[in-house]
Amino acid sequence: MLHVKSFAFNPFSENTYIIYNDEKEAFLIDPGNMPEAETETLHNFIKTNNLKIKNILLTHAHIDHILGLQWAYDTFEVPVLIHYDEMEILERASFTAKNYGFFFPVFKGELHHIKEGETLTLGSETFGIYDVPGHSPGSIAFYNQNNGFVISGDALFMMSIGRTDLHKGDYQQLISSIKNKLLTLPENTKVYSGHGEPTSIGFEKEHNPFLK
User: Is the pTM of this model over 0.85?
Assistant: First the structure.
């Protein structure tokens, strides 16, 4: 069985996720912890539950989703998994941070590129990878069929979608990604988004105004 723990971090209220199994193996997804208090909260949860972080996963590399990335890599010393098409966004993070008025160093660590068609494993559980570009060029989602949930990043939110006015955003591409990838999942699939509360595929099919 898998467990999903979420934290709303940083001024953007970004959702950082820890997915873990009963054997205490875990994925850390989109570490957005910024001030020391948030980092302490995240680290304490991992230590208190005796979790072993197997990989750090990025749905995409916008600044709000990677504010704690260097800390996470230095602390757990495991590879960061990211889509190749998202590398430019990651490399622009320092420039992006300046636009928001703060300093953010260039990430230094081990990166592995992943893409649709590949799978990730956490113990006996398997995660499918879905390419869902549009919000950013290398956005990906992680789907676990056995437990019926998907980590959608900033592609799909409750009754909303990701913004497409940022660098290399594409509205039509995002709508296509959602309709042709995420909405093909079973309607009872729980959606854990990059911001806000969880939703479901069925609810978004019926109520999301952007998908009519």
Answer: yes
